[in-house]
Structures are given as structure tokens and as C-alpha cells.
Amino acid sequence: MIPTRVHPMPVRSRVLAGILVVPLLTMAAAHGAEFRRLSVKEYRDKMKAGWIGQIAGVSWGAPTEFKFADKIIPEDQMPAWKPEMINNAFGQDDLYVEMTFLRSMEQYGLDVPIRQAGIDFANSKYPLWCANNAGRNNLRDGIAPPDSSHPRFNKCPNDIDYQIEADYSGLIAPGLPNVAIRLGEKFGRLMNYGDGVYGGQFMGGMYAEAFFESDPVKIVEAGLKCIPAKSQYAEMVRDMLAWYREDPGDWQKAWQKCQKKYREDPEYQKASNGGIDVKINGAYVLMGLLFGNRDLDKAITISCRSGQDSDCNPSSSGGVLFTTIGLSKLPPRFTEKLDETKVFSHTAYHFPGLLDVCEKLARQALVQAGGRIEKDAAGEEVFIILVQAPKPSPLMLSWEPGPIAGSMFTEEEIARITELGPIRAFEKFAPGWKIRDCGREMNPGLHDEVRGKKNVYVSHPLNEKTGCTLYRSLDVPANKKTTLRLVVGHHKEGDWLLIVKANGETLMDKLVGKESTTDGWMTIAVDLSRFAGKSVNLELVNQPNNWEREGAYWAEIAVDSQ
Q1: Can you give the C-alpha Rg of the chain in angstroms?
Q2: Is the model's pLDDT at 2 over the cut of 70?
Q3: pTM higher than 0.70 for the full model?
Q4: What percent of the chain has pLDDT over 70?
Q5: DSSP assignment, residue 257?
Q6: For residues 508 and 480, what is the distance between their CA atoms, to the nearest angstrom?
Q7: What pLDDT score does 7 carry?
Q8: How confident is the model at residue 239, as a pLDDT?
Q9: 361, 102 Cβ separation under 8 angstroms
Q10: Which own/partner contact pairs does 75-80 have at CB distance under 8 Å and 24+ positions apart?
Q11: Who contacts 337 (Cβ-Cβ below 8 Å, separation ≥6)?
């Protein structure tokens, strides 16, 4: 749809939904500003199609997720689409995580503060992985955004997470790329940094354009304008456009070029978490969007067959492409079995409720961006959208991050975070003890049950050389026998080295693994009597052994004096 010039209106105020909107638009129009028109009915039709595209993509690709790493899924192993599959996505994190962000804005408005967004995300109860899990654990431990995503605290800042959750940002911002960019700086910075954020802003920018443009190339170019040109993510997008133009009929040739550069070249794997990297998965989104030639089935299957996160990627390409078409023009096979009464897991939304909150937020975004809402000759509401040039976020590199902001939640804010992160959970598990250098692998934190024991704390080394350390200062009573008692375990397919130190002196070291435990557990008693009457600094180190499932299971940490 070509932007149109809207003639200046008489200078008078109008109130729509309690918002004074006209004078700003009158001034903009008087200065020759360009506007786009989109009826509310058409907006809602395309916005709903965008959600359907996400659902179709993730449902279709779910059986293949991460089963094909660094290889193309053979055509005969691609699942066939069945209309009833449309309802398989109501429990997918592709969808319910981004609805957490919608809920924050529904409750606190489009300009919800980032710290409130962080509190809401911290209090979510669904399982998470990768950057999402690391960011949420940081938030739960009191590290406020934007530091919750900073590479100093988050070891997977370039993961795919915000990219797969950013669809909402464009679906509530038709023709408003700067809204999608701004939302990325808020919600994307809860868990991602640098390219990890740009991937989501790029997706949001494509959705924003998809309400007005049907040509995938132009949509991709619009998204590209929303991110820093010198980022590796932008480089990937430019490469994908060039490889498509070189040979638009051979997506597998482009896949091979992408594999060689963005998977095999170490320069493009910096701060990367392997197959979860945002750039390679973003390339697979574009693989379907560009080479699919606006064929819904072809676009989804190409993104899926590209492998890696092969349900998230077709969800993104499907969502953007479906938005260009609109619900009313979708083939019945994607909509006829949809259960609109079904509630998305971990949310308050069924389909009608989801559409309503998106429309509500789109109205807010429109007015904030200098637009207005009119009625046409038939009495139908129309969005009058001020055309805006995208203003990308500053360039940030996850492998050369800038300084931290030093943002921590206040005590009052922490009191509102009901879920515990690994650090706070450990302090609850072992009062008087503290923890440092705890890695984020193997879901560290307090677990209800592990290997048959209740209330078990799981730790993990920071890296291959740095162990996770539990520590405390202890005044050892005089004239009593004092014993440090530990009950520790290991993953059934891993082991780790337990090192016990007192004032820097190693009192014992012992491998905790299959050969040294019974049913995965051992009880250890360390005599501290020689420190009687003294203050001693104790350290319990979860030291890596061969970097294979190095998590330590702590069922008991106690000091007994008799």
C-alpha cells in the first residue's frame, strides 16, 4: 500500500477513547507529512492472520525441533499438515512468553517501565531455556534490566529467544517500526543483548510492514532498516537478500552458503550458543520467507527443513507471510479447526481476548506515534498512521559488551518477585551460606525432587575451569567436636569433583560419580575440630571434571557440634 498525503484538518480537538489526538496530526499534515490508512477491520483481520501463521508454523514444525542440526531435513521426513494441528500450539513457549509482555502492557499501558516488565517476567511460572532462562534467573536474583541480559551475567546473549517472541511487537504496531524497535529495547533486553535483541527488532519491523506490503523482499528490507547496519545480524540479512537474488529458485544453495559462513566461520560464532544462535535461525526464517515465493506451505516447509530450531523459525516466517494475506483470505485448512475458546497456557487469553488486547495496544501505539483514528463514509473506524523512518538502537556487540548499568532491584521490588532465582533459592536452602560463580547450565536452583531425594539444590560450574563455590564464615565452638555433613549427588550421566576448603586449605577432594556413590548419592563427614575456638572460612567447590553434565546435587549441607 502506497503512503498517502492526508490533507490538513481544521484545527480543533477531538477526543477518541479519552485521548486528545487531532492537533498534533493537523500540524504534521500541514508540514507535508505522509500517512497510511488502514481500517480497523482490516487491521484486525491481518493481525489475527499473523497469530494464525505463528501457530501453524510452530505446530507444523514441532515434531522436528532440534532433530536436524546443521543439515537439511529430507523432504520425505517433513510432517504433512493436517487442519486439526492448528490447536497444538496453545502450550508452546513460542506464544505464551510473548503474551506475558502483552499482559504487562495491558495492565500498565504501552509505556510500562522496563523494571515492571522485568518483575512480571520474573514471576512467570512456565519452564524456560537458554537466554530466557538465564535472564529470568538474573531478574529473580535481583539483577534488574537491562543488566539481566548483559553478557557479564548472561552467557547466551545472542540466543534466539527474543527473536521467537517479538511477533507481538509488530502485530500491535502496524506501519510503526519505531514502536517495534522501542519494545525490543524494553522486553528484548530482559534476556538478550546485541544481535539477540536485533533479531527481535528485525522481526517486529517486518510484521509492522506486512500490514501494507506483500512483497517479501520489500518486507525484509523494511525490517533491515530497523537494526544497526554494522551488526552481524544485519550482515546476515544482506547476505540472504543477495543469495536470493543470485538464484531465487535454489534455497538449498543459499542454505549451504549460510552454513559455511554463519556456522563454520568462528568469526560469526562469537558469543554464540551453537544451534540456538539468533543469526543462523534468523537466516532460516528468511530462507522460507524469500524462497517460498508467498506460497504459505512452501514458506513454512523451507524454514522448517532448514533445521536447528525448526518449529520457531517457520512460526516466524509463517506469521509474517500470513499477516500480508489476512485471515479472510487464508485457506480454510489453516483455520477451520481452530478452537477459539481454548486458552493459551500460562496466560489469561483465548483468541478473542488476544485480539482485543492487541487492538487496544495498537490504538495506544498509533496515537503516541502521531496518528489518529477516523471514521469513513460507512461509519467504519480507520487508522491514520503517520509514516516514520526507523531509528535503530545503538550498536552493541555481545563479545565486546559495554559497561553494565549497575541496575539492581530495590528491596521493595524484590519483595514483589515471588519466584526465586538460583542465588536467592540457595540462601533459602542453606541459611548462612552464599554462592558464587554458578553457571546457568542444567537448570540450577532449588528443585522439589532430584534422583529420589526431596528439596535438592542443583549448582553448576561457571565454566570448564571455574567451579561453583558455596561459602560461609563459621565460628567453630571450643571444646566441642564439630563436623561438616554433606549429602551430595550427581547426574546419572555425569560426575564432578567436590573440593572442601577451610581458610584456603584443601581438606578433601573427592569425585562424585557412578563409581563413588550409591544410587547416585554419597554422605560425607568432614571433621572441623582442629579449628575449635576459631573463625574459619569454609568453601565447598563444585569443580568440573571432564565437562560432561557437571551439575552438583546438594541434598544436605549442615554443621553439627556435640
Answers
A1: 27
A2: no
A3: yes
A4: 94
A5: H
A6: 21
A7: 38
A8: 98
A9: yes
A10: 75/305, 78/301, 78/304, 78/305
A11: 83, 84, 86, 87
Which grid cell sits at 296?
Answer: 504459505
Phi-psi label, residue 307: left if phi above 0, alpha if psi -120 to 50, beta otherwise = left
- Cβ contacts of 34 within 8 Å, gap of 6 or more: 3, 4, 5, 386, 387
DSSP state of 547: S
CA torsion sign, 499 to 500 to 505 to 508? negative
Beta-bridged to residue 522, according to DSSP, are: 488
Amino acid (one-letter) located at 248:
P
| C-beta of residue 490 within 8 angstroms of C-beta of residue 546 | no
* Whole-number pLDDT of residue 32: 66
Find the farthest-apart pair of alpha carbons in the chain and give their distance in angstroms, rounded. 94
pLDDT higher than 90, residue 8: no
Q: Give exposure, 386-414, as e/b (b: 16+ Cβ within 10 Å).
A: bbbebebbeebbbeebeeeeebebeeebb
| pLDDT the model gives residue 104 | 98
CB 121 within 8 Å of CB 413: no
Cβ(468)–Cβ(461) below 8 Å: yes
**Taking CA 502 as the corner, what is the angle to CA 501 and CA 506, rounded to the nearest 5 degrees?**
40
Q: Which residues contact 466 (CB under 8 A, 6 or more apart)?
A: 437
Q: Where are the beta strands (DSSP E) in 256-322?
A: none
DSSP state of 9: P
d(CA 167, CA 201): 9
For the chain, the 3-state helix, strand and coil shares in percent, each to the nearest 5, are: 45, 20, 40
Query: What average pLDDT does the segment 381-389 reach?
Result: 97
Domains and CATH numbers, the chain: 4-13+42-372 (1.10.4080.10), 420-561 (2.60.120.260)
Q: Grid coordinates in use for 544?
A: 568440573
C-alpha to C-alpha distance for 185 and 200, rounded to whole angstroms: 10
Q: Are 436 and 469 in contact (CB under 8 A)?
A: yes
For residue 19, is pLDDT > 90?
no
The separation between CA 108 and the C-alpha centre of its own chain, rounded to angstroms, equals 21
Q: What is the mean pLDDT of the segment spanning 488-499?
A: 97
Indicate if the pLDDT at residue 459 is higher than 60: yes
- The Cα–Cα gap between 283 and 236 comes to 7
* Single-letter residue type at 164: I
Helix orientation angle between 312-325 and 195-210, rounded to the nearest 10 degrees: 20
| Residue given cell 510500562 in the structure block | 112
Three cell numbers, residue 91: 502450550
Residue found by looking up cell 509505556 in the block: 111
Three cell numbers at 118?
522485568
Q: Which residue type is seen at 481?
A: K
- Does the CA dihedral 256-260-264-269 come out positive or negative? negative
**For residue 531, what is its C-alpha cell?**
579449628
At 413, list the grid cell.
521490588
Q: What are phi and psi of 475, to 5 degrees?
A: -85, 110
Mean pLDDT across 48-52: 98
As beta bridge partners, residue 449 has: 454
> E strands within 403-551?
434-436, 445-450, 453-459, 468-475, 482-490, 496-502, 505-512, 521-527, 535-543
| Distance from the first to the final alpha carbon of the chain | 82
